[in-house]
Recover the amino acids of this structure.
């Protein structure tokens, strides 16, 4: 350090110390159960978004478990340490609110390049309107999948408007602030193949986060606190017999003589005889029913031969080793459908490929039995 001046590192350290002193605690704004619910919403939404983005980019996409913190709206610009792309998401149905997703500009260029059929390595220096449209579509698919997951959570339709894209300079001179003064900051790591390994930031207004949490917790709390429905005692209890005054004569029913049990006649029991299973399959009706199975694909295998070897011999195998099979040279090979023998044939060469010419086919009745009993 020169006399009377501070280095840039010392200035940054002072700013960081001041920011740490003013840091807000999540526990002061969200209870433990609210944090758990918001984290679960993030996990489910990000899982759907990962699948959508992976399909779009044809790359393996990973998003780590998010971490939450609380920031003041006026300090959001301090989170921007380099050029970034801001994605504004507006929830319009089922739940209403806004949030902001921020991604590094270089990462957005890679996503745009992949969307347009590139390799992700030959990105352009300038971020054009075409890049913005590509990133906008990628974010639309991601957040649309997240909205669908949210719909399943709250059991009502959730929809969003097409996300808007802003390019932020560094340091940012203007950033579209969210409404609330207190913002929930959600950070997660984004990996796209070997091309992207960086962080994304999501800003959610505290009131919007509270509303989402309320929609998740309310049905569960109502289910737990649901009153036990009591049945009408008139229907659940037998009515007590009404006492009869002594001066009223009641006509008692005359007991009827017990009837004799009917005599049981011995039934003529005969043994049931079923027709042959093989014969039943050869009937015209049985063959006609196979029309429903004709389009089902079966795996056809040509087996040259088999043998058995002890483990010691298998471990000794190497390049150039010869395994003797149980078939003689020139003997027909077996043709199997889903591991069931249906024919025999001989190996031929068709241009540059192997083929097999059928020389013997199994009896139609047996073949029908085998095909209809395939596992």
């Amino acid at each position: 350090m020169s006399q009377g001046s501070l280095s840039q590192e010392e200035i940054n350290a002072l700013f960081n110390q001041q920011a740490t002193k003013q840091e807000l605690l999540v526990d002061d704004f969200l209870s433990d159960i609210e944090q758990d619910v918001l984290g679960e919403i993030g996990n489910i939404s990000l899982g759907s978004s990962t699948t959508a983005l992976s399909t779009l980019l044809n790359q393996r996409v990973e998003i780590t478990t998010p971490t939450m913190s609380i920031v003041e709206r006026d300090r959001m610009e301090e989170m921007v340490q380099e050029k970034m792309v801001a994605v504004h998401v507006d929830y319009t149905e089922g739940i209403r609110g806004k949030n902001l997703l921020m991604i590094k500009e270089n990462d957005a260029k890679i996503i745009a390049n992949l969307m347009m059929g590139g390799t992700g390595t030959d990105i352009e220096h300038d971020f054009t309107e075409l890049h913005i449209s590509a990133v906008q579509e990628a974010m639309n698919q991601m957040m649309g999948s997240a909205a669908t997951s949210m719909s399943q959570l709250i059991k009502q339709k959730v929809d969003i408007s097409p996300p808007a894209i802003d390019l932020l300079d560094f340091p940012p001179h203007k950033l579209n602030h969210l409404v609330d003064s207190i913002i929930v900051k959600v950070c997660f790591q984004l990996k796209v193949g070997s091309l992207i390994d960086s962080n994304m930031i999501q800003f959610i207004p505290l009131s919007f986060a509270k509303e989402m949490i309320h929609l998740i917790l309310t049905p569960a709390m109502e289910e737990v606190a649901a009153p036990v429905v009591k049945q009408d005692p008139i229907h659940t209890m037998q009515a007590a017999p009404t006492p009869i005054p002594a001066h009223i004569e009641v006509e008692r029913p005359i007991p009827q003589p017990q009837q004799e049990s009917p005599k049981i006649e011995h039934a003529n029991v005969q043994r049931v005889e079923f027709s042959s299973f093989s014969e039943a399959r050869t009937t015209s009706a049985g063959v006609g029913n196979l029309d429903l199975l004709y389009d089902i694909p079966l795996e056809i295998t040509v087996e040259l031969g088999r043998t058995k070897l002890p483990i010691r011999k298998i471990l000794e195998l190497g390049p150039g080793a010869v395994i003797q099979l149980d078939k003689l040279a020139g003997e027909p090979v077996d043709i199997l459908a889903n591991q069931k023998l249906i024919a025999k044939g001989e190996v031929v060469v068709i241009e540059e490929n192997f083929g097999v010419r059928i020389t013997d086919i199994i009896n139609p009745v047996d073949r029908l039995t085998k095909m209809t009993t395939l596992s």
User: Anything to note?
Assistant: The chain has two domains: 14-224, 296-371. The chain has ten helices and twelve strands. Residues 57 and 115 are 6 Å apart (CA to CA). Residues 233-240, 244-248, 277-287 have pLDDT under 50 and may be disordered.
